[in-house]
Amino acid sequence: xxxxxxxxxxxxxxxxxxxxTSIEVNGIQYSHPDEIPNDDDRKKVLKLMARVANPTAxxxxxxxxxxDPFPPSDSLWPHLQQSHVPQPxxxxxxxxxxxxxxxxxxxxxSFLTIAGIATYSNQQTLxxxxxxxxxxxxxxxxxxxxxxxxxxxxxxxxxxxxxxSADRQSHRIEMSEASQPPAYEKGEQVTILYNPAHPSQARxxxxxxxxxxxxxxxxxxxxxxxxxxxxxxxxxxxxxPKNSEF
Length: 246
Prior knowledge:
Layout: E1 11-16, E2 19-25, E3 28-30, H1 39-53, H2 73-82, H3 96-128, E4 130-145, E5 151-164, E6 170-174, E7 189-195, E8 198-204, H4 207-213, H5 215-238
Antiparallel strand pairs: 1-2, 2-3, 4-5, 4-7, 5-6, 7-8
């Protein structure tokens, strides 16, 4: 980097890695301002060095010729040598671990939220259900469909149950569950769980039905916990005192 001074004398200051390496006055190189024999040229060099080191310190219309004597070069030189030319700021980049954190953390929170909502819904359903004795009166065959919703020829059987609700109303309902071979036989006695406000949505009290009720919150709760824990571990391991907050 070089700078040229006004008022006839040609002055160049050479910089390397933000440090002054040499000074050139009218084609002659000097390694220190004190080596410049001409007093005016030496003052011009020091003023020019000050301008480069701190561009805001001097006005654009500063007159080198009319300037007051500058402090001795020995007191100024170390300061100028330590001055750095301002460098353009680099845009901030996100490290990989920070990107992973902000991917895993929202997914974990979302999955845990879904699991919480599903759990609350199940608890509300269970709290409203009542028990009743029922009997399997028929088995209805259902043809399993493929992904294109075409019959596959594979049959499963769903039980049809009669039961009486607390208001002494009789109900005959085809259960949603179906299996092959049939899980129930005609005439078999079963326990029915139903919502008095919606008795048509009754279900047989069985281990399989209970497990099916908790599959959705279980899956989302498990996956959400994994994503959430990984996010917290990444934050804990890769956080530094300088940047402790993601």
